[in-house]
Structures are given as C-alpha cells and as structure tokens.
Design brief:
- Strand 5 and strand 6 form a beta hairpin.
- The model has no long low-confidence stretch (mean pLDDT about 95).
- The protein is mainly beta.
- Strands 2, 4, 5, 6, 9, 10 and 11 form a seven-stranded mixed sheet that branches.
Length: about 120
C-alpha cells in the first residue's frame, strides 16, 4: 500500500518561511510526478507546485518567486520551500504523486494533508 507522509506544516507570521516534506513509500517502481496542492476553507483544491520525473517544474502564479519545489529521487521525497509567506497562503497542503506501483500500474495518490497557517 502506498503511503505519502507529509511533515513541516505549522503556524508562521507573515513574511516567514516553512518547508514541507512528503515521503512516498510502498512498492513504488517509479514516480512520474510529485507535487503539492492546497485547499483553503470554502475554496476548491488548487495546484501549488509540481515536479515531474525529468526535473521540470510548474507553479501557480500566486506562488512564483516565493515557493520552490524540489525532490530527492533516491528517497522518493518531494519538498516545498515556502518563503515570504502571506496570510492568503493559509490552507491545508496536500502532497500528490502520480506513480507506478508493483502489480497496480500508474495511479494518483494523495497525502493526508498538513495545515499551514500564516498570521498577519
């Protein structure tokens, strides 16, 4: 069974920084893409940043220049460095992975979410 274990959320003041981590495990053969989405109260879940197997990245316009997504392929781990945080970044952040698992094929998986709260 695939597990995506997130860590690093918390409470930070506006202008501060946080680093999220997400480690994938469980019969993984290869990872096509990993990244982060977020969902604020009353809003739909939205893409924050993704990194694909070739190393290319994509970001939401609202976080470009402030957030950086990276990965450690050997550890099946993706990171999200968040700088210059704003109150509007407050949300539950979810790790997402599109990966190939032994005996299952390619599927989409989600972490349990980690709360990020930015105070003004």
């Amino acid at each position: 069974q695939v597990q995506l274990v997130e860590s690093g959320g918390g409470l930070v003041q506006s202008g501060g920084s946080l680093r999220l981590s997400c480690a994938a495990s469980g019969g993984i053969i290869s990872i096509n893409r990993m990244g982060w989405y977020r969902q604020a109260p009353g809003k739909q879940r939205e893409l924050v940043a993704i990194i694909i197997s070739g190393g290319n990245t994509d970001y939401a316009d609202s976080v470009k220049g402030r957030f950086t997504v990276s990965r450690d392929s050997a550890k099946n781990t993706v990171y999200l460095q968040m700088n210059s945080l704003k109150p509007e970044d407050t949300a539950v952040y979810y790790c997402n992975a599109l990966l190939r698992r032994l005996g299952v094929g390619v599927r989409d998986y989600w972490g349990q979410g980690t709360q990020v709260t930015v105070s003004s």
